[in-house]
Amino acid sequence: MTRFKLQDYEGIAGSALIEEIRNLGEKLKGFNILHINSTLVGGGVVEILNSLVPLMQEAGLLARWEVLEGGPEFFNTTKQFHNGMHGQPVNITGEMLKSYLAAAQQNHHLVEGHADLIVLHDQQPLGLTAFRGESEACWLWYCHIDPRYAVPEVWYFLAPMAAVCDVAVFHLPEYARDLPLLQYFMPPAIDPLSDKNRDVSPKEYEEVLKRIGVDPEGPPVILQVSRFDRLKDPIGVIQAFKLVRKNRECRLILAGGSADDDPEGAAVLEEVRAEAEGNSDIMVLSLAPDANLEINVLQRRAEVIIQKSLREGFGLTATEALWKAKPLVATPAGGLVHQVLDGKTGLIARTVEEAAEKLITLLDNEELGKFLGATGREHVRQNYILPVYLRNWMKLLTMIAR
Ligand code: UDP
Q1: Cβ(257) – ligand 1 distance below 6 Å
Q2: Nearest to residue 71, comparing CAs of 44, 111, 107, 47?
């Protein structure tokens, strides 16, 4: 993987921001920060850490990234927690809680040794707080999920562990919870130079489409990229598409893979395939975890992109679509409302029927799509690209390092 330098981002982010990062880096030189999550592949947190950690290092920090290991039982449990955090009904057994705590025990070596700050990403590593002991580090829980709808049996199991930390970071101010610790708000970002988001040459574009069997010509494409997860509502996307297809010539591509820490992906993929069965205008693409260029090219191929999530922490797939100046239809879930400003940077739809209606509006109105796409890209450039995110991190670290 190509590693980019801070200066490589100057053209996109502007030199003032890069200078600000370097100045903050001077103040934070040698600050030792350890990130811990639970997978090396798949999902938004991995996407962020892959790009963020090397840039933190270049800025002068001693940044590290460790992955908590666990067996199938642990990941079944944490997926239940994930669903419960998103307000879905869950069935948590005593055995599951034991497997969660056992994984923390098994991984406690991760938090031994010196660090100025330990960052626990999402709920999987929260059990490590049991080993905080005499640790001199500051502990930070970074919740990448919208926690507002968390079911009590999950929230009240996790909250006391979160409360062992000094700081909780949520993506958005409206996600603040009643926790006895400092709360801070920091939305994530995309890396505009990564294979997922960089410009693509015409040759690459053609090659990739050929490889994945997508026609570069032909009817307009509607696309949703997401893990096969019920909360991304892939079935709702198909239902909306079927309504659109009754009136317009178009295709649907549902592209996604799974994450190592998401054991439900295969079952959801089967449900999606069953719903799409017999409809030659729907393509369900199961992608490898490193299919970054493929996602980039698919997003560029699409005429309209949809993100029909029922719940969403932030929704980096929407950020990626906007960065490619694509017209986007999205539900007002979690972070999507901050990205898709209705009528300015995309269109908001609440139901299957509304989604169909908005998709048709965009298919019929290329000029509107261009306008929304252009303002969407600029909105992302100002707020949700990696250098902005790194600057926000470093501002937070200057407060912690005091
Ligand atoms: N992603 C991917 N392959 C897939 C599906 C998703 O690389 O098959 C990426 C996607 O491009 C985005 C991230 O994983 O960068 C998903 O982040 P998001 O915030 O949209 O959702 P999450 O999966 O974290 O719920």
Answers
A1: yes
A2: 107
CA angle (375 as vertex; 372, 377 as ends), nearest 5: 105
**Whose Cα sits closest to atom 14 in ligand 1?**
43
Whether ligand 1 lies within 6 angstroms of the CB of 41 is answered as: no
Q: How confident is the model at residue 140 (pLDDT cuts 50, 70, 90)?
A: very high
Please check whether residue 19 is in contact with residue 396, taking contact to mean a CB–CB distance below 8 angstroms.
Answer: no
Q: What's the CA gap between 328 and 358, in Å, rounded?
A: 9
Q: What is the pLDDT of residue 331?
A: 98
Task: Please state the ipTM of this predicted complex.
Answer: 0.99
Task: Measure the CA–CA gap between 1 and 317, rounded to whole angstroms.
Answer: 20
Distance (Å) from CA 295 to ligand 1 centroid = 10
Tokens describing residue 23: 């100045």
Distance CA 325, CA 312 (A): 21
- Rounded CA separation 75/80 (Å): 8
Written as six digits, the tokens of 371 are 């306008």
Helix axes 386-401, 15-27, angle to 10 degrees: 30
**What is the DSSP annotation of 57-104?**
HHTT-EEEEEE----HHHHHHHHHHHHHHTT------HHHHHHHHHHH
Q: How far, in Å, is the centroid of ligand 1 from the Cα of 123? A: 18
Round the average pLDDT of the chain to a whole number and report it.
95
The predicted model scores a pTM of: 0.94
Residue in the structure block whose two tokens are 């307000």: 87
Note whether 359 and 335 are within 8 A (CB): no
* The pLDDT value given to residue 170: 97
Q: How far apart are CA 272 and CA 259, in angstroms?
A: 17
User: Residues for the chain: how many in total?
Assistant: 402
- Is 225 touching ligand 1 by the criterion CB < 6 Å? yes
Q: What is the pLDDT of residues 77-127, one digit of tens each?
A: 999 999 999 899 999 999 999 999 999 999 999 999 999 999 999 999 999
Task: Give the separation between CA 360 and CA 345, rounded to whole angstroms.
Answer: 17
Burial class (CB in 10 A: 0-12, 13-18, 19+), 53: middle
